[in-house]
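From the shared-data thread, chain only:
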Amino acid sequence: MIQIRKMSESDIDALPRLLRETHIEYSDIKNPCNEFYVVEDQKKLCGLCAYELLEHQKAKIDFIFIKEQDRGFKFGDGLLRAVLNHLDHRGVKKVLIESNSATNGFYVAEGLEIIYTSPENSDFLTFVVELPQFFSSPCKGSRV
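Structure, as tokens:
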């Protein structure tokens, strides 16, 4: 059974195994401002999302990661939408996402708007999600 949920204390032990595939260090995700959501399939963590609340009804997604062997099953799409839904319920209106070449295609495919490209490295993009608009639009693949 697949679950997308807030990370619990019992998930902490599984994080180092999950993060082995990333360039993210376990110590890097201990930002006290971050909150986490996970994707779990058959009691195994498959993905992780870190976000932080900012001021003025804004939030920032620091990263979304799905293990390579679990990609292609729409876990990333589900995780993104679950986090955005959670943030919407918390009154957040705008979500910023900083991305790199490894995840840019995912966010573009999700239909997110690019608002900034780093002049030093065009692979580093910033996307924005306007939550009221995002949830009033049909999901990709939906027929209107």
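Helices lie at 15-19, 75-89, 104-109, 131-136.
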